[in-house]
């Protein structure tokens, strides 16, 4: 028997099932973040370690796991935040808060990323915390990335379509924008705030430019160096040769690992 479904019936089916599909997808994305975060914390947190706490939604799971381990295994861990959000997470979980003044060398930092390419070059700063994240990562013996499967790519720009974040001094954002486009092409947008009129202002009082690059085959180390030479640029969200290992949570709950040597 041929089942005839009219357009309006299809619309009704779509209306009923589409939200369920979206919520299942969201669920598996959150699960993917959680399994990656738990795995990394279990592997890298040790007693008496100095631990860098990254920023973003995946890091929330890492801090939850860290708090559990500190409690159950009676560990002493000093946490160095990479943002206002990270500091609040540390305090909320009653973890020991440290700072770079007293702990200038960290054993490990666990952080999220917006994209990780085949060479383990990262785009970071989707959440606007790239400056402190890069400072803390640069003081860490190891930078470990935790991410869901959507961040795993071959070339930068394959997966993350919002561009490379660049933190800049507000008075210089227009000339910086013109110089970067003149040097490397593409398009640059001043990041706008969502719950405030005007631009996003970072934890450090700066603006964020999102550079929508076109050429995916640039030498990212060179790009990073050249952009940072422009007066008024504070930091870029390109993390080149900084990350040793990445954990990508998969929708079915397993974790894929990639390290510098295996990439
Ligand atoms: O760089 C970051 C914030 O500046 C985050 O680590 C990055 O945006 C990933 O965040 P999420 O875990 O929410 O996907």
From TrEMBL:
Transmembrane segments: none annotated. It holds the Pfam family Rib_5-P_isom_A. Pathway: Carbohydrate degradation; pentose phosphate pathway; D-ribose 5-phosphate from D-ribulose 5-phosphate (non-oxidative stage): step 1/1. Keywords: Isomerase. It is an enzyme of class 5 (isomerase). Its EC number is 5.3.1.6. HAMAP family: Rib_5P_isom_A. Belongs to the ribose 5-phosphate isomerase family. This is ribose-5-phosphate isomerase.
